[in-house]
Specification:
By secondary structure, the protein is of the alpha+beta class. Helices cover 48% and strands 18% of the residues. A 3-stranded antiparallel sheet has the order 1-2-3, with helices on one face. A hairpin with a 6-residue loop joins strand 1 and strand 2. The longest helix has 21 residues. The N and C termini lie far apart (44 Å).
């Protein structure tokens, strides 16, 4: 299997799986973000206490990339747990997708599958939309 095929499989899996999809009733922060270049939208809810992310949920109306990115993000955030670690993940994902690092850092896990979008600025915004919502939610509770 070629690397491009593997990446496509990871993105397709997360698009179907949609880990964290469905807004939870209990939350400490809610953020709604829109990507003005394509119209993708996300509503993200976060339950947080003592600098720990207890729960993360989202509803995404948009392309496969934004939905798959939200799913991968949910998985990584629930593993990372602390707000500081989540902020580090966001920075690593952003830097990788914007080309600041040539290879995906190990810390970004399955987000490395989005490597192909790095050459298309508009698609990078789709992938980063959930991460921007997450950052805004964390800022609102800190």
């Amino acid at each position: 299997m070629k690397l491009d095929d593997l990446y496509r499989d990871v993105i397709a899996k997360h698009y179907r799986l949609r880990s964290g999809h469905g807004l939870q009733d209990e939350f400490t922060a809610e953020v709604h973000k829109v990507n003005p270049s394509c119209g993708d939208e996300i509503t993200l809810r976060l339950r947080h206490h003592d600098d720990i992310v207890d729960e993360l949920s989202h509803e995404v109306a948009g392309c496969t990339l934004s939905q798959a990115s939200a799913s991968v993000m949910h998985t990584l955030v629930m593993e990372a747990k602390t707000a500081d670690r989540v902020a580090e993940l966001h920075d690593a994902v952003r830097d990788f997708l914007r080309g600041a690092t040539p290879e995906p850092p190990a810390s970004v896990g399955a987000m490395g599958a989005f490597e192909a979008v790095r050459s298309t600025g508009s698609r990078v915004r789709c992938v980063l939309l959930p991460w921007q919502a997450l950052t805004a939610a964390l800022k609102s509770v800190r």
